[in-house]
Amino acid sequence: MTELVFPAPATITVPVAGDKLFPVRRVFCVGRNYAAHVREMGGDPSREAPFFFSKPADALVDGGEDMPYPPATSDLHHEMELVIAIGVGGANIPESAALGHVFGYAAGLDMTRRDLQGQAKKEGKPWDMGKGFDHSAPIGEIAPAARIGHPTRGRIELRVNGALRQGADLANMIWSVPEIVACLSRLVRLAPGDLIFSGTPEGVAAVVRGDVLEGAVEGVGTVRTRVV
Ligand code: MN
């Protein structure tokens, strides 16, 4: 037995509605998955293949906890998203089998340092520091698909201090859950514990310290955080 040079970090978990915990492996995110959001970001919503970026698993913030305003930005944006929780791994998963790999769903926030992301885009540099910073992924409880099924429509919305900021329908997603899972599984071998943030609808905007963010996905759950 070889001794660890320091204690291994604790397993990152997300509560499952009920009383269990979902152990997280990796956090993937889909870019540009609602046409109206693609347009508000100055892009062309034609159906090009979905693309992905990542956040570290320890960027997750349990629903209900505060998130500290991050360093190095003056333009912290909310992106309200449906999160797909993978329960069964696999590579080259066909769309027709993709839902069998999904354990459940959650409401999540892909918090973004928009100024750093914008600078990176302009210079052709990676998005990591715009997207993958500490506390950048508040997430609510995971609802098992065995209980709620696989949502294909339903309201997704975000309120900041009670005022509606983002409101859309899951049916507006450019790429469906089976298409996202199948496509990502052709790029990496998916594993149990992987989370996939599936993209945000229109209405992204800045938040400041003291703002309370309350998101909901109909039939799935809620996410809440306060920026401190
Ligand atoms: Mn996003």
What would you note in describing this structure?
It contains five helices and 16 strands. Strand 15 and strand 16 form a beta hairpin. A six-stranded mixed β-sheet has the order 4-3-14-7-8-11. Strands 13-12-15-16 form a four-stranded antiparallel β-sheet, with no helix packed on it. Strands 1-2 form a two-stranded antiparallel ribbon. It is of the alpha+beta class and 228 residues long. The chain has a single domain, classed as Fumarylacetoacetate hydrolase, domain 2 (Alpha-Beta Complex). The longest helix is centred in the middle third of the chain and has 10 residues, at 114-123. Bound molecules: manganese (II) ion.
The CATH superfamily appears as Fumarylacetoacetase-like, C-terminal domain
Number of helices: 5
CATH architecture: Alpha-Beta Complex
Based on Cα principal axes, name the global outline: globular
Q: What's the helical proportion of residues? A: 10-25%
How far the N terminus sits from the C terminus, by CA atoms, comes to 43 Å
Mean pLDDT: 96
DSSP, total strands = 16
Largest sheet: 6 strands, mixed
Strands of the widest sheet, in order across it, are 4-3-14-7-8-11
The kinds of small molecule bound in this structure are: manganese (II) ion
User: Percent of residues in beta strands?
Assistant: 25-35%
Question: Using only CA atoms, what is the Rg?
Answer: 17 Å
**pLDDT below 50 for ≥5 consecutive residues: which ranges?**
none
**Which sequence of SSEs, written as H and E, runs from N to C?**
EEEHEEEEEEHHEEHEEHEEE
CATH topology: Fumarylacetoacetate hydrolase, domain 2
Assigned CATH class: Alpha Beta
Give the number of domains. 1
Q: Which structural class do you get from the secondary structure elements?
A: alpha+beta
